[in-house]
C-alpha cells in the first residue's frame, strides 16, 4: 500500500510540482491550501505532512501544535521562507520532525520524506535498530558508524540517504541521478559510479557492515545491518 502524504501549501506554483514529484515516487498525495483544511484532513491519517508556515488562515506553527495536541502521530516536515534559526527551533518545539527553508531542492525533500517515512515505520514496528551500526542524521547531514562520524561529501550523503530510505530495495541509476544530480544533468553517469565507489570505501574503512550492492543493469541496493536512517 502506498504511503499517504498530505501537502499543505497555498501557492499553486510550489504545490503542483511538489505533488507531481511525490506521485511519481508512488505516494498517495492529498493537497490542501489552508490550515483548517489540513487539520480536517488529518482524520484520514496521512503518514506524513509537508506543512507550509505561511498559510492564509492559520499559521503553520499553530497547525503543527494543534495536530500534535490532537495526537497526530505521523511525521511533519515544515517548509517555509522563514530561514532564521529561531524559527527552525520554534518549529521543532511545536512538534515538527524536520524543517526545510524555501527555496529547497526537490531531491533533498524526497530524501527527507523517504527517511522520515522509514523512521516512522520503524518506530511503529519491532525493529529497534543496531546502536553500533550505521546511523544517518538527516537534520545535521551527518553519518555515524556507532559513535564515529563518517566524513562524506554532499553527494555521497544524498546517495546514502536515498539508499538507506529504500533499504533492501533496488534504487535505479536513473532515480539516483535525477534525485541527487538533477533530472537535467547532462554529464556522464560514471559520476554516480565514482561516488558509489568512494562511499563504499569510506563505509568499509570504519567497519560498517552495511553494503552498497550493484544490481547489474538496474541500480544499487543497501543491504546488511539494520541501520537508522
Automatic annotation (TrEMBL):
Residues 123-224 form the OmpR/PhoB-type domain. Pfam families: Response_reg, Trans_reg_C. The modification 4-aspartylphosphate is found at residue 52. InterPro entries: CheY-like_superfamily, OmpR/PhoB-type_DNA-bd, Sig_transdc_resp-reg_C-effctor, Sig_transdc_resp-reg_receiver, WalR-like, WH-like_DNA-bd_sf. Residues 123-224 bind DNA. PANTHER family: PHOSPHATE REGULON TRANSCRIPTIONAL REGULATORY PROTEIN PHOB, REGULATOR OF RPOS. This is DNA-binding response OmpR family regulator. Residues 4-117 form the Response regulatory domain. It comes from Nocardioides soli. Keywords: DNA-binding, Phosphoprotein, Two-component regulatory system. GO terms for biological process: regulation of DNA-templated transcription. GO terms for molecular function: phosphorelay response regulator activity; transcription cis-regulatory region binding. One of its GO terms (cellular component) is protein-DNA complex.
Amino acid at each position: 500500500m502506498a504511503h499517504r502524504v498530505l501537502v499543505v501549501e497555498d501557492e499553486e506554483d510550489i504545490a503542483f510540482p511538489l505533488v507531481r514529484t511525490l506521485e511519481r515516487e508512488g505516494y498517495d498525495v492529498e493537497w490542501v491550501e489552508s490550515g483548517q483544511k489540513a487539520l480536517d484532513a488529518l482524520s484520514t491519517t496521512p503518514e506524513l505532512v509537508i506543512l507550509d508556515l505561511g498559510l492564509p488562515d492559520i499559521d503553520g506553527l499553530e497547525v503543527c501544535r494543534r495536530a500534535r495536541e490532537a495526537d497526530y502521530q505521523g511525521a511533519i516536515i515544515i517548509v517555509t521562507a522563514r530561514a532564521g534559526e529561531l524559527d527552525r527551533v520554534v518549529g521543532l518545539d511545536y512538534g515538527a520532525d524536520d524543517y526545510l527553508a524555501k527555496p529547497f531542492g526537490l531531491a533533498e525533500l524526497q530524501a527527507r520524506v523517504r527517511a522520515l517515512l522509514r523512521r516512522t515505520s520503524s518506530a511503529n514496528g519491532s525493529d529497534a535498530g543496531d546502536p553500533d551500526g550505521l546511523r544517518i542524521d538527516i537534520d545535521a547531514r551527518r553519518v555515524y558508524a556507532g559513535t564515529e562520524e563518517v566524513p562524506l561529501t554532499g553527494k555521497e550523503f544524498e546517495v546514502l540517504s536515498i539508499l538507506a530510505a529504500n533499504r533492501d530495495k533496488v534504487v535505479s541509476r536513473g532515480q539516483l541521478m535525477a534525485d541527487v544530480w538533477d533530472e537535467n544533468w547532462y554529464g556522464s553517469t560514471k559520476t554516480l559510479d565514482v561516488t558509489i565507489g568512494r562511499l563504499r570505501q569510506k563505509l568499509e574503512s570504519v567497519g560498517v557492515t552495511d553494503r552498497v550492492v550493484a544490481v547489474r543493469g538496474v541500480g544499487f541496493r543497501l543491504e546488511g545491518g539494520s541501520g537508522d536512517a
